[in-house]
């Protein structure tokens, strides 16, 4: 990571803030995050989680870790709100308005599903800075909006190469949480990396747990469990999941079968929930959502905020792979050579 700090994700159940009609009905004055009559400005950061919230042991927990780090390092106060399953965009807008109306500045929406809502609410609160993590199609608009986007396909290429090089059966698999363009990037990179490392590798047809608007595929471990059983039955001995909280089911099932699994978003080797099978976690595709949250809060705190999109890729260590457990130590030189070729442009990784 660029600052040299390392954040350990801890699974914590956050208290959800109940939204009521009275809380969201009227627009309040945009305070800009001022601490009232105090001479010193206290930055009040509001964060709205994606489905699964704090404690999902994946994507949301990475965002939470970035917020926790910012709270530790900077003079800020925070408030968090969790999303509800299958909620309409109006609920996301209400959540963002609630935070902005209470004087939180900046406000963060975690997940691509917040993109349209952030852009809309930001127009109503022009003095409040907004971040959307995983900006949909890496596009945002507005002088007070930043979009953090990631080259998931690049990190997935590296773990795909690892899967092919480590597979003994010659068959590997991929399980995506929800069938959306963002997760297609994980699949595309993974398959490209596997084929680059071993052209003869057999890649099973990708399995997606749910179709939108059903987003259970990002939070229901039972769905991951069943999908993993299906790919194991077809001979896969390495399976990569990009399924958020549902991926915990994938990890446990694959590990119980004594086959190799690849985690996502955080270094999942270190998660307490999968400690009994961690020896079967080959690697994880690490996506530094934590860094994007920290960078944004720090920029607002220091007055260096810049609107527009900010890309996190292999070149700035925004994505990568983990080496915990030592399972990829013997192929690290090959993976790092692929990384160098991607950064230089010699290898162009597909996104579809």
Automatic annotation (TrEMBL):
UniProt keyword Transcription present: no
Residues passing through the membrane, by range: none
Domain of life where this protein originates: Bacteria
UniProt-annotated location(s): Cell membrane
Pfam families: Bmp
Signal peptide positions (record): 1-23
Domain ABC transporter substrate-binding protein PnrA-like: 48-351
Keywords, comma-separated and alphabetical: Cell membrane, Lipoprotein, Membrane, Signal
Record carries keyword Signal: yes
PROSITE patterns for this protein: PROKAR_LIPOPROTEIN (PS51257)
GO cellular component term, pick one: plasma membrane
Primary location class: membrane
Membrane topology of this protein: Lipid-anchor
Segments forming a coiled coil: none
InterPro entries: BMP_lipoprotein (IPR050957), Peripla_BP_I (IPR028082), PnrA-like (IPR003760)
Similarity comment: family membership: Belongs to the BMP lipoprotein family.
Protein name: BMP family ABC transporter substrate-binding protein
């Amino acid at each position: 990571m660029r600052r040299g700090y390392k954040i350990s994700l801890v699974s914590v159940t956050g208290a959800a803030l109940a939204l009521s009609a009275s809380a969201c009905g009227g627009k309040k004055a945009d305070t800009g995050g001022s601490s009232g009559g105090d001479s010193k400005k206290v930055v009040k950061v509001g964060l709205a989680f994606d489905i699964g919230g704090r404690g999902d042991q994946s994507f949301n927990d990475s965002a939470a870790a970035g917020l926790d780090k910012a709270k530790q390092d900077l003079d800020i106060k925070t408030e968090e709100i969790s999303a509800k399953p299958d909620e309409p965009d109006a609920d996301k807008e209400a959540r963002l308005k609630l935070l902005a109306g209470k004087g939180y500045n900046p406000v963060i929406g975690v997940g691509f599903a917040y993109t349209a809502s952030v852009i809309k609410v930001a127009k109503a609160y022009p003095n409040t800075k907004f971040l959307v993590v995983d900006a949909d199609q890496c596009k945002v608009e507005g002088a007070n909006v930043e979009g953090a986007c990631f080259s998931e396909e690049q990190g997935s290429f590296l773990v795909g190469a690892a899967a092919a090089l480590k597979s003994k059966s010659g068959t590997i698999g991929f399980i995506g949480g929800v069938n959306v363009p963002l997760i297609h990037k994980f699949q595309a990179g993974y398959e490209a990396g596997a084929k680059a490392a071993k052209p003869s590798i057999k890649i099973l047809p990708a399995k997606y747990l749910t179709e939108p608007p059903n987003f259970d595929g990002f939070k229901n471990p039972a769905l991951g469990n069943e999908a993993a059983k299906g790919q194991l039955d077809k001979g896969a001995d390495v399976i990569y999941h990009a399924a958020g909280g549902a991926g915990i089911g994938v990890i446990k099932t694959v590990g119980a079968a004594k086959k190799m699994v690849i985690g996502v978003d955080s270094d999942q080797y270190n998660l307490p929930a999968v400690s009994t099978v961690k020896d079967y976690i080959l690697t994880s595709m690490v996506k530094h959502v934590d860094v994007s949250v920290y960078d944004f809060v720090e920029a607002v705190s220091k007055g260096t905020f810049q609107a527009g999109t900010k890309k996190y890729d292999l070149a700035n260590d925004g994505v990568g792979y983990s080496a915990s457990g030592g399972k990829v130590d013997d192929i690290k030189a090959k993976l790092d050579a692929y990384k160098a070729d991607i950064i230089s442009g010699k290898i162009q990784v597909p996104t579809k």
